[in-house]
Amino acid sequence: MIDIDFSSIRIWDILDIIIVAYLFYIIYQLLKGNIAFNIFIGVLAIFGIWKLTSLLDMKLTSTFFEQFASVGIIMLLIVFQPEIRRFLLMLGNTTLRQRYHFFDRWFSKNDSKNSSQRELNIRSIKTAIVNLSKEKTGALIVISNNLPLDTIGDTGVALDAKISHELIQSIFNKKSPLHDGAIIISNSEIKAASCVLPLSNSDQLPKNSGLRHRAAIGATEQNDSVVFIVSEENGNISFSINGLLQQNISENKISELLVDHL
Hints:
Blueprint: H1 11-31, H2 35-55, H3 59-70, H4 72-79, H5 81-107, H6 112-135, E1 139-143, H7 150-153, E2 157-162, H8 165-172, E3 182-186, E4 189-195, H9 211-222, E5 226-230, E6 237-241, E7 244-246, H10 251-261
Parallel strand pairs: 1-3
Antiparallel strand pairs: 1-5, 2-4, 3-4, 5-6, 6-7
Helix pairs in contact: 2-3, 6-8, 6-10
């Protein structure tokens, strides 16, 4: 019978358990629906077998699995490089957004010009998305404020243009030479158009998801960005952030998301 002395448990022990449980939850969310999850289970199995064979004093088998365990950290860094990148981006994005909102509360009263321009940009992007949806014109709109997207922007045509719904709609017009690809919006400008986004390898996407949705998820998996997607088949509007996809976004939801992320 195991005798546990609960009187010796400190508040820090409970906090320690909560932190570790939360970290495992984040790891599960990052790996869910990805082939990396199977690799992670395999790595855990190797460590488990190593510990078990060590306890049973099975020297030959234990030595064999110990060789894998000895390079375990390096192996994890190599195999899970994309997932580790997403985890760090998630932490950094949260911290930067909190910092932005903190300073925004202090300086918003003295920065009415920038505030007005931001509201105008939000209305322009929303109008473009809604109009593209009604016309069933496919579109990918990438918004990034905290992390440069030079590697993606270099795949397209540089614009550095003022945000307007007329320009966005003309870019995605099927007769436009720039319609095939994504536009990059950053620092209140349309930085580039006809950009190629990295495709996601996730096998958990909805069956009705096409290449645009997979590209949007791939971009938010690898970069600190959000993406609006307009389906060419049915005009439905979707939104991707941190490798996750929200479908059938309403007009009111578009405004909320733009306020949060632009």
